[in-house]
Each structure stands twice: as structure tokens, then as C-alpha cells.
Amino acid sequence: MQIEQITLGERGERVVGEALEELENEGYRAVHSIFLEGCDIDHVLVGPAGVFLIETKYRNGNGLITFRNGQGIFVGNKRRWNGAIQQAKRGASKVSDIIRGKCGLAEGVWPVVVIVGNWRIADEWAFTDARVFTPESLRDYVLQQQPILKRIEIDLIASYLERSGN
Fold it and tell me: What's residue 38's pLDDT?
């Protein structure tokens, strides 16, 4: 059972990693597998729309997932996988500290949970400090955002994360 979960987790991270790499042509840089002080970060996407910390979860099954701000992730009426939201928030906080302390920038980091599998996501949030997406909806969301970072800032943040987290 444990080996199967690791394999599914690795598969999910690979799917998300490939989706993030597709954004390179749009000016984004993806940093994968960052380890910071007891925090295992799956991915950080840095680009014109800002910085996104991505916690990946591969889940068997299918159907509709609802993300309700302040309440969590639901499948039907049952809360599921809410530890992933807390993981993303902790990681985003650590990456924000690096960006402020080491890069000298005040850029915040959006915590994101990406659920891989045969799922659709209904968002019931207006203002939130986290987001939940599928790999496809993450890509669409990022590309719809207004630019806030310059190329030099993107390169500085991504380069520092690449060096500091391995």
C-alpha cells in the first residue's frame, strides 16, 4: 500500500511538472522538489503573474471536488485532503521568507493545491489565501492573471530557489 501511494504521488508530481514546463514559453520558470527546513515543496512556479507554491495530490476516483474558502476541500459533503491546503500554506510562508530575506523583494506567494486524477473542481471562493486546481485549470488561471513581476525579478527568485532548496 505504501509503495503504491508513493508511486501515485510521484506520478502526480510528474504530471504537474510537465504542465508547469509548458508555461516556459510564456515567461515562467518552474522549480521542482525543494526541501526547506523540514518542508518538502513539490513545485514553485515563478513568472509574470507572480509566485505560486504548488502542493500536488494524486487521487484515484473521479467526480466533482468543491473548494470552499475557509472550509476546505469537499467530495460530496465530506471534507477531504485538507492537510494539503495547510502544507501549501506552510511552504508558501517559507518561500515568501526567502523572497523577502534573500532576494529583497516583497512579493507574496500563492499557496496552491493541484489535484491530479479524473476530477473537476468547482470553486466557491471570492477572496481566499489558497487555491485548488487541476493541472489544466492551473495553467488557464495563471495565464489569465495580470503581470506583476519583471523578467529580472523572475530570474532572481527562481535562481535563488534552485540553489537554496536542494
Answer: 79
CA distances from 159 to 52, 67, 90, 143, 164 (A): 15, 32, 21, 22, 9
What pLDDT, in 10s, does the model give residues 123-148? Answer: 766 667 888 999 999 999 999 999 99
- Cβ of 1: how many Cβ atoms within 10 Å? 5
Rounded Cα distance, 108 and 116, in Å:
25
Q: Please state, in angstroms and rounded to a whole number, the distance separating the CA atoms of residues 30 and 21.
A: 7
152, 153, 133: which is closest to 143 by C-alpha? Answer: 133
Q: 3-class SS at 148?
A: coil
Mean pLDDT of the chain: 88
* Helical segments of the chain, H only: 2-21, 83-101, 135-144, 151-164
Q: Which residue has the cell 530557489?
A: 161
pLDDT value of position 55: 95
